[in-house]
Amino acid sequence: MKFKLNLVTLALLANAGIASTAMAAGGYGLQNANTDKVKFDKWDCKRCVVETGVNGTVGVGVGYNDSNDIRSANAFAAENEFAGKVDADLTYVGKSGYRATVEADNLGMENGRLDINAGKVGQYNLNLNYRQIATYKTDSAMSPYLGIGGDDLTLPDNWQTAGSSQDMSELYNSLNPLELSLERKRAGLGFAYQGEELWSTYVNYQREDKTGLKQASGSFFNQSMMLAEPVDYTTDTIEAGVKLKGDNWFTAINYNGSVFKNAYSQLGFDNAFNPTFGAATHGYMSLDPDNEAHTVSLMGQMNLSQTIMSARVHYGQMTQDQAFVTSGYGYQVPTESLDGKVDMTGVNLKLVSRISRSVRVNASYDYSDRDNKTNIEEWTQISINDVNGQVAYNTPYDITTQRAKLGVDYRINRGMKLEAGYDYRTDERSYQDRETTDENTLWTKFRLSSFENWDMWVKGSYGQRDGSQYQASEWTSSESNDLLRKYNLADRKRTMIEARVTHNPTDSLTLDLGTRYAIDDYDETQIGLTESTDLSYDASVTYMLSDDMTLTAFYNRQNIESEQAGSSSFSAPTWTGVVEDQVDVIGAGWSYNNLMEKKLRLGVDYTYSNSDSNTQVTQGITGDYGDYYAKVHNVNIYGQYQATEKMALRVDYKMEKYEDNDAGNDIAPDGIWNVVGFGSNSHDYNAHLIMLSMSYRL
Fold first, then answer.
1. 269 bridge partner residues
2. Where does the UniProt annotation place the signal sequence (predicted)?
């Protein structure tokens, strides 16, 4: 047999070492081809040339931030008056196959990111990454305490204690503003190696430092002070694994570990009130303790002709053994530390099989067990709230969860599919009001896309939860009403329906509509949550006015209404409450490209959201707690000009208008007689950011 070698044949020859087993058949494999007279050096695929060197874009930007409320930094990622950033998207390709990439986004701002990769494709890769995230609550909290940022808060030397905050003569003279914000900086290093055809391995290390101040409170009996808790956390995580794979299977073993450390173990604080409980003038509270978590998992997957099977088993352990804080505590503790230990085991199984051209079956089973092995100790109980008994015990909660799912997809004909399934879940808990709960859910979904330019589906489900006998646990709720049912344990019937329609009447117009309605009925509950409804719907449109102009818009609304019953006499219901929550989100965007001889691009993006909540309580007469709302407008107007073939200039103007009326944030430092508060921290501001940036294409 004679045949001519072409470029496709040569390409197959180049990979014959990898695919020789699959290609060889009856002596006609490529390894048997006669290539003695072939002049390989004459063959040159000009279209196969890989460009080497550096290409991509780099950019810098500088911005001016005009805001009188630090909360705007959550949207602008800029805390200070002036902000700068570096952006990059670079790729280097070497002749020997070496490849490196650098990606930077807003580096230097509060949400900056950097990702560097270097190595050879299909052999090894080294990764360096960095991420910064900051969240801001307020910079106008007021406190009389000194030493904020440390672990011991003291009052001024001239402080005059009193029985109520209104009678503290030096309170307002001693107030100083403080900032409640948290900043996370995360840096990582990773390495991946592809061994022979059969195996590969990887290892990733990451350290995260979290610093700042968050809101806390310290108390003496029924009197409390709002405190600025220092945050100085360090979390080290490491992931490593080895993967083995064949033609239709793979297996892998992985390890994941984390070590958390807090630079502060306790927070001390002066008593702003007249000493009452134990005549204490200085109090202490323990902070988040050091802890560790480690998990090992084994997973695998096998692909048969019509079936895919996968499995995963894992074992993990969480430990916490930091010494207890005993400063200012006048009682004997039964042990020096908790010596906490929790074992976690789990199994995940999944199967997907195509029975025929029209029918596909999928099934899964998940098992997880949380076994708390912490020793139970006997503790002296301090009477801050009304309690019964003189001894308390730490409660080692355990939970075992099993989930099973079975689903069938039936393709009725082209563009028409019916799906149905059954979901089951059971939970077994220790030291809870209900030892076992069982959930059963049936669902079905019908999808229709046979009509030209239409895609629509509707899904409905019905689920029911019940379980073992409900009874108040002496470990968790000895002071609860016997009729009380906790919503996560109570009997519940859930009905849900959702639908979506997508239509493309023309190539330039896309319409999308969706809705969802769910109702939870707690029909066996007399005290507690009795009913909850959730209704949401959304609509969006994308319209290409021309090849260069695009318009987008969307709207979303969600209404959640919850009804509950309570008792003021520890017996039958005596009052009812209704909570109504509504969230509206509106957005629109417009862009125009290729203006001024295809050098200019203009655009604007706008979003508006309004969340509103109202609570009404009826006990003989109806009392309205008043609306809580938060409204925010965000605008981004931008223009980008291609000054030269390689250099582009861009200007962004961003505006945020925010307003809320959270009553919990609008209390004077002495607004509650037995509380020293942070003062009013509601928000009502207009913030502006102008950013000028330049990018250069290499």
1. 153, 283
2. 1-24
- How many angstroms separate the Cα of 470 from the Cα of each of 434, 464, 465, 532? 5, 16, 13, 21
DSSP string, 325-385: P-TT--S--SSSB--EEEEEEEEEEEEEEE-SSSEEEEEEEEEEEEEE-PPP-EEEPP-SS
Question: Domain residues of the chain, as ranges?
Answer: 422-625
Rounded Cα–Cα distance for residues 296 and 294 (Å): 7
Strand runs (DSSP E) across 415-507, as ranges?
416-429, 436-448, 454-467, 492-506
Model pTM score: 0.87
The enclosing H or E element of 658 equals strand 647-660
CA atoms of 612 and 652, how far apart (whole Å): 31
161-165-169-170 Cα dihedral, nearest 10 degrees: 80
Maximum Cα–Cα distance for the chain, whole Å?
107
Mean pLDDT by 10 residues, the chain (698 residues): 39 39 38 53 58 93 96 95 97 92 97 96 95 96 97 97 96 96 98 91 98 95 94 98 94 98 97 84 95 98 95 98 88 90 98 96 98 90 55 87 98 95 97 94 96 96 95 61 91 98 96 98 95 98 96 98 92 93 98 95 98 92 84 98 96 97 88 95 96 96
Rounded to whole angstroms, the Cα distance separating 87 from 96 reads: 28
d(CA 622, CA 136): 37
Q: Tokens for 448, please give them.
A: 């229709």
- CA atoms within a 13 Å half-sphere pointing along the CA-CB vector of 292: 11
Residue 334: C-alpha distances to residues 337, 400, 447, 475, 643 (Å): 9, 29, 62, 19, 74
Distance CA 611, CA 558 (A): 9
